[in-house]
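Re: beginner question about structure tokens

> Can someone show what the tokenized structure looks like for a real chain? I only ever see the sequence side.

Sure, here's an example I had lying around. Input first:
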Amino acid sequence: MQRLLAIIIAILSWFALVAQLVLMLENRVVAIPETLIRFFGFFTILTNTLVALFFTGRQLNAAFIEKAGWLTALTSYILVVGVTYQLLLRHLWQPTGLQWVVDELLHTIVPLLVVIFWTFFGEKTKVQYRQIFRWLIYPLIYFGYTLLRGLSTGYYPYPFIDANKLGLSKALLNGVFILVFFVGIQLALIWVAKRGKKIK
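And the corresponding structure tokens:
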């Protein structure tokens, strides 16, 4: 069951990523190089790519899969993707057809499956609260890059960090809120993991 679920997550992630890239290229409003930069400028795309690589790596027995806490960190990232989309972004558009399928895979189905996988097969004995400091490096680098690129190009992938419309101080404040949300999710996952150990 563990192997089957990992394969399903890998397949769905890769399909959604490739399909989203094709859709963006077909409907691009800027040159292809800029479209590709914008594609990989979405936290959703980057995180689903990490998910796809992780669960593909499981099938290949890649060494990085065994790194302590990696699955829990990945689960926190994809959880933030899912929850943020449902609360802040879903109402902004109504995709149809293949775009709707891809949208649901990236923001709902894959996050849920990863959480299920972590719940039943996660490395609960390897997680520690101090690991959160390392886990936050990825979202911090993403936010810093996105804000700096936005200030230089005027393009922001998400409205809640759009300094053009919100102002720099509001965008920074929203970034802090998102960071706090990351910490909250990670603390909750570690607490659940440690509680599960004690029950066993």
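Each token stands for a local structural state, so reading them left to right follows the chain. The chain has one domain: 2-199.
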